[in-house]
Amino acid sequence: MTQELHIIGGGMAGSEAAWQAANAGVKVVIHEMRPKVETFAHRTGNLGEMVCSNSFRSDDHEQNAVGLLHWEMRQANGLIMQMAQKHRLPAGGALAVDRDPFSESVTAALMAHENVSVSYEEITELPTEGHWIIATGPLTSEGLGRAIQAETGAEALAFFDAIAPIVYFDSVNMDKAWMQSRYDKGETEEERTAYLNCPMTKDQYEAFIDALLAADKTEFHEGETAGYFDGCLPIEVMAERGRETLRFGPMKPIGLTNANDPDNKPYAVVQLRRDNALGTLFNIVGFQTKMKYGAQKEVFRMIPGLEDAEFARLGGIHRNTFINSPTLLDAEMRLKSRPNVRFAGQITGVEGYVESAAMGLLAGRLAAAEMQGRTIDGIPNTTAMGALITHITGGADAKTFQPMNVNFGLFPPLDGMRGGRKGRKERYKGYTDRAKIDFQQWLDGQS
């Protein structure tokens, strides 16, 4: 009987894993519970649906670790990067996408592949036979979550992730707001004017912080604790850490000049990024929130330019779960106690769309090779993918393990490179140059 690879979850990791394995000649079944079983964050049953931001972050593959990860995934014929490029939106130096056409294209590409089929049902038990990849992400269903806990003998770790609101562009007052990317970054005029900016004076900023701190917030269920991932903190939590925190974070005014009042430098700036190709929707950058819906409207309409804002989606908060990968997974992402099961994506403790898809890419290739009796050399930890998988499968301290974005701090040091801020540009270029050579050699070894 023909062997099949079963993948639970059709998000970024599951979709990429399916694509990689199918292209290697393996029959793949994607088990996706949506739309029959809904989640708090998803809106459709599409594969590869983006539920939070519409950005894959920096696309700079010479000076940025996530940009390097983009490069590696493109070299490996990654589906997620192909479709992101196809539906790219202007976003300065970032890779932002038109989310609905993106997920529709991911779905269409997988459905059209002769080696891929999709089964729409919820899996609630940990499989005992066959080849499986669990890529259920941060919103793993309650039933499967219990099964994973029962198998591992450990509580799944948890943190809370918050979603930023989306505003209709035609409700923004452009007499107060203006279009500009920070430092006018981008190669085209469209890129250099990719962000919508709303300025604040010191008094407006102080009043905004007061309202933010006083607003009604979503309460947690009994027994839950707010263990936020620092890369996706709700703005009110940031404000609680200090009144100036937001002004040095998502509301920093540097690199921006108010086109409506160029002689006066804003004290703080709220940025919005285009969320669809038509330019009718913009999401408020870095404004993840756990405020109640009514409070969100009141507080966000205090932002100059958003006084009459209409919201296509308000912010929200949901629980994200991930396993303690350093103790539970081997170097090939297999569950040590049940090696027929691999884990991939955000549930392994990586954070971000790109990182999740990258772990799916590796899991799909590793599973396909195992099923075909091939051996893939371990991916070098000098690459972005290698640095990530090394971190989650043993490089991190299991006692303090938390979700991690890709960053150059995970890479082995370069000999002879100058340390500190002054040597950073040369050092980052050294990391990416080395990674590209090592990654290409690793890829060539599989052909």
TrEMBL record:
Q: Where does FAD bind?
A: 9-14
Q: Which UniProt keyword terms apply here?
A: Cytoplasm, FAD, Flavoprotein, Methyltransferase, NAD, NADP, Transferase, tRNA processing
Q: Name one GO cellular component term.
A: cytosol
GO BP: tRNA methylation; tRNA wobble uridine modification
Q: Which Pfam families match?
A: GIDA
- Any idea where the MnmG N-terminal domain is? 5-374
What EC number(s) does the entry state? 2.1.1.74
Q: Which reaction does it catalyse?
A: uridine(54) in tRNA + (6R)-5,10-methylene-5,6,7,8-tetrahydrofolate + NADPH + H(+) = 5-methyluridine(54) in tRNA + (6S)-5,6,7,8-tetrahydrofolate + NADP(+); uridine(54) in tRNA + (6R)-5,10-methylene-5,6,7,8-tetrahydrofolate + NADH + H(+) = 5-methyluridine(54) in tRNA + (6S)-5,6,7,8-tetrahydrofolate + NAD(+)
Q: Which domain of life is it from?
A: Bacteria
The record's listing under InterPro entries reads: FAD/NAD-bd_sf (IPR036188), MnmG-rel (IPR002218), MnmG_N (IPR040131), TrmFO (IPR004417)
Primary location group: cytoplasm
Listed cofactors: FAD
Gene Ontology MF, one: flavin adenine dinucleotide binding
Q: Where in the cell is it found?
A: Cytoplasm
Broadest EC class assigned to this enzyme = transferase
Q: What does this protein do?
A: Catalyzes the folate-dependent formation of 5-methyl-uridine at position 54 (M-5-U54) in all tRNAs.
Family recorded in the similarity comment: Belongs to the MnmG family. TrmFO subfamily.
**What is the protein named?**
Methylenetetrahydrofolate--tRNA-(uracil-5-)-methyltransferase TrmFO
> Source species, please?
Marivivens niveibacter
